[in-house]
Specification:
The complex is a heterotrimer of chains A (466), B (376) and C (380).
Chain A: H1 6-16, H2 28-40, H3 45-71, H4 86-110, H5 120-140, H6 167-200, H7 204-213, H8 221-254, H9 266-292, H10 301-331, H11 335-346, H12 350-362, H13 370-374, H14 376-403, H15 418-441, H16 447-453
Helix pairs in contact in A: 3-15, 4-5, 4-8, 4-9, 4-14, 5-6, 5-15, 6-7, 6-8, 8-9, 9-10, 9-14, 11-12, 11-14, 12-14
Chain B: E1 6-11, H1 14-27, E2 32-35, H2 43-47, H3 54-80, H4 93-120, H5 129-132, H6 135-139, E3 144-149, H7 157-166, E4 171-175, H8 186-213, H9 264-267, H10 278-296, H11 307-310, H12 320-323, H13 327-336, H14 350-367
Antiparallel strand pairs in B: 1-3, 1-4, 2-3
Chain C: H1 3-27, H2 29-60, H3 70-75, H4 77-89, H5 93-96, H6 108-111, H7 119-150, H8 154-182, H9 194-219, H10 228-259, H11 262-270, H12 276-295, H13 298-302, H14 304-326, H15 338-360, H16 372-376
Helix pairs in contact in C: 1-2, 1-15, 2-4, 2-7, 2-8, 2-9, 2-14, 2-15, 4-7, 7-8, 8-9, 9-10, 9-14, 10-12, 12-14
The chains are: A mainly alpha (466), B mainly alpha (376), C mainly alpha (380).
């Protein structure tokens, strides 16, 4: 290589430097004003319009659930052999969406990636809402949902205990642990912010509410000392929890003998898919939040760029998983697995399989181009494509494998009913309703965590933004 | 708290606070507490705080969670209610690992979060005087505080205030000690107790409703009241209202073999197909004891446990009259019944009947023994 | 570094070589080749793991690891050193791998795969992987060494662009190594997470080797500017990825145990019978439980002594992992005999000799990297 001139060298170094995480000088007081004011102000018109649409969808969803409750699961399109369809697809889909929040909130904390501080609160909230929506589905997809408490191990006069060897029981424990731990983690992070709200607010009722919620937080250094440690420890444990929850969900399928389901790569494959789908949803939500709430200087292009890179990485990992699944399906020399995998691509539901590959592998490759990583419309295109693709991936895994399983005399196509679609739409409506409510009632950025990384905030004066 | 309150210094930024602490620690003897809107690097060392025990607590409770999860699963599915699932052994630890892991994480996380809040920080302390002072609003926003407890040995409030101002505090506030906690009045305690009782009663009623009444109301009861034929219930589907139907005429029950012998005399020529082995006689004995002895007696002599109750006279199977009958005739009587004895065609299949016949013969021999029968 | 130690290592390697060659005469080719495969895969995974670490740093744009990067760069030469070893191993196909024999074609589970498992395609894959790794080595490692002299920041741009491509290459090639060298010892068996499982072990091996080398250099007074904060990150990664390894290993076992399909579980049954079952338990303990418990406390992650012994234990347990996977295919019992010890002597001494030679040359840190200063200033 020829030697570089000083000007050229500077050019290269500039390309290598990362874009700023925060833009503009900003003080702690400014931060509080910009973020916490949204909690006290009246929401803009756009919020009210969006809220009415989503809550309408959610209510419609609940109406369909009520109808299912009254009439029975026959209202859905489930049949034999496709006994598990939209119910489980939606469950796996929504649990997956939740994982990105924990990844951003917990795993990135462990890596000391401080750019996560601007988006952690929102991402963690999305986790909780996604898990809440997901938790609906195991409840409503059983024949007698009012007896769901039978899944809990409690002493009873029948002398029965649930079957702990069943992956469905593992699911019950994993999802409820995931929900309670995420809620606890989210709440702990909110405690100092509630203290800020308590001290800013004027109304007596609100002040009382925030006092109780903030648990008497004073910001004492001795308290911060234990708080930081506890928060970090929970982050470490939550990381393991994320891996385990979606692995347990994958065990629902992988421990069975159904061809196409019993593949050992399912646990890491599902975890990767979950992170993939979740990040797409986070990117979607971030783009909307930063523009409507005027937080572009806190959630910057850097954040979007990094999240898109993670999306691209996950897409490549999914491509590896698909490749391995296809190769191993052939390598196994098992004629049933061969048949099933062919059906994925060219069978009755082959259109769904091809759509999955296009949305999950092909379209996200656009993110190699810097334009798509920085441009709002480009990002939204990729995120929506990934969301659709990941939903259809679960559809392919479940419906396509089941509709032609072992006994050819049982083979039968699956057709979802209006009720199925209604509940799916309702789940999206519920999720976005909760997100909109959250944006209105709680600070969307963890102001306390942001203050840690503001330049000049620490005594050494060092920049901690990344 | 030791009776004299404290002095609170307010600093403009973190650096001033951290630099002030060693100064104040040298000169004031009371306990120090710093207040910051966010955690500050290096302040733990400046204040001389010991390592947080959160890690140890979490590890301990994580192990407790893991062990209790695993042991409970092993006990519930292996010992108390062992079920065979997928042919796995009862104590299959592999299948119990996922739930054990979740219990570990659950116990550990809640120990960390709640242990930190409630145990280590002893929150909430809503009556803390600094919490109630107007400076608190500054500390959650952008200012930093240093509180110095006053005690008898150390400097008084004015000296400490001057020290703080010297170290860079932009304002100083005197904090009075919180008044004594109001003793709980009897009315308060009574209302709390009453509240607990009320909550328990409501919870109990709710549980009863949820588990007993709710499942049998509409629409939950739809699962039970389905349009199907239930055993021993009437049903409007059939004109006569009976749910249970007799067999269709001119059809044969699946698995039934037609019995072509018309009378006891015809049955005389049929031979006993079973060999007279110990196993067959054992079976015969079992069957006789179960089915026949109740009327004919354990010895076959017609004196069974039900004889006095019925007032009927069952045949004495060891009498000469029955000894003279052929095997086939005895079999015919068992199959078709005779007089007051019902047919045992539904109770015993063919093999069982023949085995019982063998045993009857053995009884006959045993109860009509002669000296020559004692061999050797 | 003491030249006497080098002499001792050379003597050890020579005696190991003599013993290894004697194995052919005394115990036969199968014993010789099974040991050869085990050891060359072991060194290959260490080298590849280090190359992966280097590429990972470029992909993520991490700054804290820049001062340490020269160590895995040097260690990745191991992957190329075993290039000739893997080419030699191609001669083992006839002895060890059943699919090379015509009677295997009777089993439909193997004959169907003949288009993939045949000597020609297998060799082509081996050569292809070597070429790809050599290209990656040239771009990432030699480029970094060249940057020491020129200080040209364009290397960073080039590495940043190539590293993601290397990740794809690495994913495919490590899967090929796993399926070809290890899994096809029993060609009827299949597990699609096997590539990921070997990756987990590889990454840990690379991390462990890097940690050991870093700590060794610090002990002899070099790399003095690398502080406890850097060590903490190394310890943290070791901690996290030992959990990942255990997770993948257990998931594969649990799924096969639960479904209990004969065409899958025979592989595990072989590896639980005889003494192999207790060895597996021991493997779980030394590869996961012991490092996990040692590295939980925060202080332990940055303590050089804990880190050194834990990393050494992890390297040993990675070897044990490969031993447990490969040796039962030859129907051996787990107790090592003198051939195993000789091979150990040969490869360990040879590798140490090679690594010591590597560490002598060149600078200890990437002197020309523009972010070296930022990396040295890293604090948690």
């Amino acid at each position: 290589m020829s030697a570089l001139s000083a000007a050229d060298r500077e050019l290269v170094l500039r390309k290598l430097r990362l874009p700023p995480v925060l833009s503009g000088p900003i003080t702690c007081g400014d931060l509080d004003d910009q973020v916490l004011s949204h909690v006290t102000q009246k929401p803009p018109r756009a919020w009210a319009v969006a809220f009415s649409i989503t809550s309408l969808a959610a209510l419609a969803g609940f109406a369909f659930i009520g109808y299912t409750f009254y009439v029975g699961i026959g209202a859905w399109g489930n049949n034999i052999p496709v006994a598990w369809a939209f119910g489980i697809i939606n469950f796996v889909f929504w649990i997956g969406i939740g994982h990105a929040g924990t990844l951003i909130s917990a795993i990135l904390l462990l890596f000391r990636a401080r750019w996560r501080n601007a988006i952690a609160r929102f991402a963690e909230a999305m986790t909780i809402f996604a898990v809440m929506v997901a938790g609906l589905f195991p409840l409503i997809h059983v024949g007698r949902p009012w007896l769901a408490f039978w899944l809990m191990p409690y002493p009873n006069q029948r002398g029965l205990w649930p079957n702990f060897r069943s992956p469905l029981m593992w699911d019950v424990f994993a999802v409820s642990t995931y929900f309670s731990v995420s809620l606890l983690y989210w709440y702990l992070g909110l405690v100092p912010d509630f203290a800020s709200l308590r001290d800013r607010t004027r109304g007596r009722v609100r002040r009382f509410l925030y006092s109780v919620l903030s648990f008497g937080w004073r910001g004492a250094a001795t308290h911060w000392h234990h708080f930081e440690r506890a928060y970090l420890v929970i982050a470490g444990l939550a990381t393991g929890l994320v891996l385990s929850v979606h692995s347990v969900v994958s065990f629902d399928f992988a421990v069975s003998l159904v061809p196409g389901w019993h593949m050992t790569i399912f646990p890491p494959y599902f975890v990767c898919g979950a992170i993939f789908a979740g990040f797409a949803m986070v990117v979607l939500a971030m783009v909307v939040v930063r523009t409507t709430m005027h937080l572009e200087h806190l959630i910057t292009e850097y954040h979007l760029d990094v999240m898109n890179r993670i999306l691209l990485t996950c897409s490549c990992l999914m491509a590896y998983a698909y490749l391995l699944e296809g190769f191993t399906a052939w390598y196994s020399m098992n004629p049933y697995i061969h048949h099933t995998f062919l059906q994925y691509i060219v069978g009755a539901y082959g259109w769904a399989g091809r759509l999955t590959i296009a949305c999950n592998i092909l379209i996200p490759q656009l993110l190699w181009l810097r334009f798509f990583r920085r441009n709002t419309a480009g990002m939204l295109l990729v995120s929506v494509a990934v969301t659709i693709g990941m939903w259809f991936e679960r559809f392919v895994i479940i419906v396509s494998s089941l509709h032609q399983d072992f006994l050819p005399s049982s083979w039968h196509l699956y057709k979802p009913t209006v009720v199925d679609f209604g509940i799916l739409t309702g789940s999206f409506g519920l999720f976005f309703t909760l997100v909109l409510l959250f944006a209105r009632v709680l600070p969307v950025i963890a102001t306390t965590e942001m203050k840690i990384v503001l330049p000049g905030s620490q005594p050494g004066g060092e920049s901690h933004e990344r | 708290m030791n009776g004299k309150g404290s002095v609170l210094g307010i600093f403009a930024n973190a650096r001033l606070l951290v630099e002030a602490i060693p100064d104040i620690r040298g000169k004031a003897t009371g306990r120090l507490e710093a207040y910051t809107p966010f955690p500050i690097h290096g302040i733990d060392r400046a204040l001389g705080l010991r390592k947080s025990p959160v890690g140890g607590m979490v590890f301990l409770m994580g192990v407790v969670g893991a062990l209790s999860g695993l042991l409970f699963e092993l006990w519930a599915n292996g010992v108390d209610y062992p079920i065979l699932t997928a042919g796995k052994p009862y104590l299959s630890w592999e299948a119990f690992v996922p739930i054990m892991f979740e219990m570990t994480v659950l116990f550990a996380c809640f120990t960390s979060g709640l242990g930190m809040l409630l145990l280590l920080n002893r929150l909430p302390l809503f009556r803390n005087p600094v919490l109630r002072s107007p400076a608190m609003a500054l500390f959650t926003k952008d200012k930093f505080g240093l509180e110095v407890q006053l005690d008898e040995r150390g400097p008084d409030a004015e000296t400490v205030a001057a020290l703080l101002r010297q170290s860079g505090a932009e304002a100083v506030e005197r904090i009075e000690e919180a008044g004594p906690r109001a003793a709980a009045s009897p009315e308060f305690l009574a209302s709390v107790a009453g509240g607990i009782v009320l909550v328990c009663a409501l919870a109990g009623l709710l549980t009863y409703w949820a588990t007993k009444l709710f499942p049998v109301s509409v629409p939950m009861v739809h699962m039970l009241s389905q349009p199907r034929l239930d055993p021993e219930r009437s049903d409007p589907f059939f004109r006569d209202g009976f749910g249970m139907r007799p067999p269709v005429a001119a059809t044969v029950l699946r698995g039934s073999v037609p019995y072509l012998i018309a009378s006891e005399e015809e049955a005389a020529v049929v031979q006993n197909p079973l060999p007279r082995t110990e196993a067959v006689l054992g079976r015969g004995r079992q069957l006789f004891t179960d089915h026949c002895a109740v009327c004919h007696g354990l010895l076959g002599n017609g004196i069974g446990t039900l004889t006095p109750a019925y007032g009927a006279k069952p045949a004495n199977l060891v009498a000469q009259k029955i000894i003279d009958l052929r095997d086939g005739q005895i079999h015919y009587v068992v199959r078709m019944g005779k007089n007051a004895m019902p047919s045992y065609a539904a109770d015993l299949d063919d093999d069982q009947r023949w085995a019982a016949v063998h045993y009857v013969r053995a009884l006959q021999r045993a109860l009509n023994a002669k000296d020559e029968d004692i061999a050797r | 570094m003491n030249p006497d130690t080098d002499k001792k290592l050379a003597v050890a390697a020579a005696s190991g070589l003599a013993g290894a060659l004697a194995t052919v005469a005394v115990c036969g080719w199968q014993r010789f080749w099974i040991n050869w495969i085990l050891w060359f895969v072991f060194l290959l995974t260490i080298g590849l793991g280090c190359l992966f670490l280097v590429a990972l740093e470029h992909v993520v744009g991490a700054r804290w690891s820049v001062p340490l990067r020269r160590v895995p760069e040097r260690l990745s030469s191991l992957a190329l050193l075993v290039g000739p070893a893997s080419l030699l191993a191609l001669f083992s196909l006839g002895t060890l791998y059943p699919w090379t024999r015509p009677e295997s074609l009777k089993d439909p589970a193997v004959s169907g795969k003949a288009v993939w498992l045949n000597t020609r395609f297998f060799s082509a894959r081996v050569v292809g992987c070597l070429l790809l790794w050599a290209v990656a080595y040239w771009i990432l490692v030699r480029g970094s060494v060249r940057q020491d002299r020129t200080g040209d920041p364009r290397f960073n741009l080039r590495a940043r662009r190539f590293a993601p491509l290397f990740m794809i290459i690495f994913a495919i090639t490590i899967t090929v190594v796993a399926f070809d060298w290890i899994s096809s010892l029993e060609p009827a068996w299949y597990s699609d997470v096997f590539g990921v499982y070997l990756f987990a072990g590889t990454f840990l091996a690379g991390l462990a080797a890097t940690s050991l080398a870093v700590l060794y250099l610090k002990r002899i007074g070099r790399l003095s500017q690398v502080g406890p904060d850097h060590l903490y990150n190394l310890g943290g990664f070791l901690f996290a990825f030992t959990v990942f390894w255990c997770y993948i290993g257990f998931a594969q076992y649990l799924l096969m145990w639960y479904a209990n399909m004969p065409e899958e579980v025979f592989w595990y049954k072989e590896r639980l019978a005889g003494g192999w079952g207790p060895l597996l338990v021991g493997l779980a303990v030394v590869h996961f439980l012991v490092p996990f418990l040692i590295l939980i406390p925060r202080a332990a992650k940055s303590d050089p002594r804990f880190l050194f012994w834990t990393a050494a234990l992890m390297l040993l347990s990675h070897w044990l992992d490969l031993y447990w996977m490969i040796f039962p295919a030859a129907g051996r019992s787990p107790l090592p005999g003198w051939p195993e010890l000789c091979f150990g002597l040969l490869f360990v001494s040879g590798a140490l000799l090679f690594i010591r030679g590597l560490l002598r040359r060149g600078s200890d840190m990437p002197a020309g990297d523009p972010f070296l200063g930022e990396g040295l200033e890293f604090r948690l």
